[in-house]
């Protein structure tokens, strides 16, 4: 069983790299952000709470994040392991996590803040089907319209310059110290997140001594 934590600032590619790891290793990707977005899109009680927090320009509390992660991990559907992103966000959560699970490695995706801003502020979302786009590398065929359902694309509530500034402050003040806590266990792997996704994935697998990544060939 393999259990990994993936960390990095917003826009560093945590979701993409997690999914590439999970696809052929039978791991489960647990994304705190995806859990929150699913609840917002499906108008659940949790979704309404998260929407109020985001509309106020605030960050979801650490207590709520920890509650969600505990509940998700308790489902125990990760027979071969998991890759978790968006958690832990502070020292208390990291201590809980290390006490509760034998982590096999921490992947730290490094990305300069100017590149973070370029990537994040180019992201778009279809509020109807949930499809993600990036105006830098993955533009829709019709400007401003989803290729899948044709709905008008929007900017996520947490992808504004103001929200990004808040998230970067939160990351630097709370999450970077978590990395130092993990480093005491000597299993943090720093990976440059600037190259193409396939190259980043290859470096991750080499660092973790996993089977080499084989990019899918177009049919």
From TrEMBL:
Pathway: Purine metabolism; AMP biosynthesis via salvage pathway; AMP from ADP: step 1/1. Residues 31-60 are annotated as: NMP. Its EC number is 2.7.4.3. The keyword Transferase applies. Keywords: ATP-binding, Cytoplasm, Kinase, Metal-binding, Nucleotide biosynthesis, Nucleotide-binding, Transferase, Zinc. It is found in: Cytoplasm. ATP binds at residues 11-16, 123, 195. Zn(2+) binds at residues 126, 129, 146, 149. It is an enzyme of class 2 (transferase). AMP binds at residues 37, 58-60, 86-89, 93, 156, 167. Residues 123-158 form the Adenylate kinase active site lid domain. GO terms for molecular function: kinase activity. The keyword Amino-acid biosynthesis does not apply. Its main location: cytoplasm. Residues 122-159 are annotated as: LID. It catalyses: AMP + ATP = 2 ADP. Monomer. Consists of three domains, a large central CORE domain and two small peripheral domains, NMPbind and LID, which undergo movements during catalysis. The LID domain closes over the site of phosphoryl transfer upon ATP binding. Assembling and dissambling the active center during each catalytic cycle provides an effective means to prevent ATP hydrolysis. Some bacteria have evolved a zinc-coordinating structure that stabilizes the LID domain. Catalyzes the reversible transfer of the terminal phosphate group between ATP and AMP. Plays an important role in cellular energy homeostasis and in adenine nucleotide metabolism. Belongs to the adenylate kinase family. NCBIfam families: adk. This is Adenylate kinase.
